# Entry
Amino acid sequence: MNFYTRLQKGKVWRGRSASHVVDELEELVRTQGVKLVNFSDSSFEDPGWKGKERAREICEDIIARDLKLSAKVFMRCDTMLGDEDEDLLRLWKQAGIDIIVVGAESGSDYELDFYNKRANVEQNIATIKRLKDMELFYVYAGFIMFGPNSTMETLRDNAEFLHAAGLSDNPAEMSNTLMVIRDAKVYSVLKDEGRIIESDQFWEPPTYTFLDPKAERAAKHWDGIFYRYPLTNQLNKVQTNIENLICRMTNPMNADVLEELGPEFVAFKQAYTERRRQLADAQHGYFVRVLDMVDAEVSDDDLKASADEFFGPSYELHVSRYEALYDAFVGRVAATGAPLTGLVFQHFRPNVVEDRIKRI
# Structure
């Protein structure tokens, strides 16, 4: 529970009625031509069975009103593990939910406990595997690779978790560092331990000290890669665009396009899956190699040389293959005459910065 929740009087959760939510969606779709929608609830299915029932009612009403939209929702990893939950997930897809962001956060039960997460590693894996096996959604995991209590062991656990979950191809997942928000619980814990570093500029978030110097060195190596190695940002953009395109091809509002390009879509997905596997293996291997180099206490120059090679020539090959694959299939979709606004998403990353955590 964070500072803002503690200020609130009364119930922690109060959901708007399903009909009111869909009234607003219908207004946006019918009068404004909106096709892409983000549900900003911290978890679309919470709290408990009441939340699931509300989500079901929202989806059933969207379908009943024949609203054509593509939506993104957030979901916890410990709530949709029952057999009946798969039916609910399929209803979500039928209503136009294409993107699910799951709050996995870590592949280490030690860190999950530190972050006060309800789910454990086993539940995280089970949820991501279920969603991926359904092949209906763009599955993105909220994940903290590096944090104040990271150790070399937790970093190896995180790397193995992402690889097992099929997410180690994503440079954002592999490099993400915890950003501390003032008055969040983790901020209070670190402040009590004397590990918070406040900025002289009030608009900048606080930073913190690491417990493990080796983990901090590994974090520094990956920190700011989108700034230092632009190819990582370029690849992350095309990855996001491909994932958006794939999940929206199976959106009910694009049924005509899917029917026309069915075999080509299958081939496109297969080619992308192979490209992902190659990059996932390479990036996981590189991450482990960096940890091995840090453990061996190699020089900073050697670490930098490894990054220059991996995020340079190696990444350039992956980027060119991804972009060629994406451009070719988007061209085929455009040739059908279908409107691309419900299929194509132009990703941008506004927070490309040089450093995301401060060193001391």
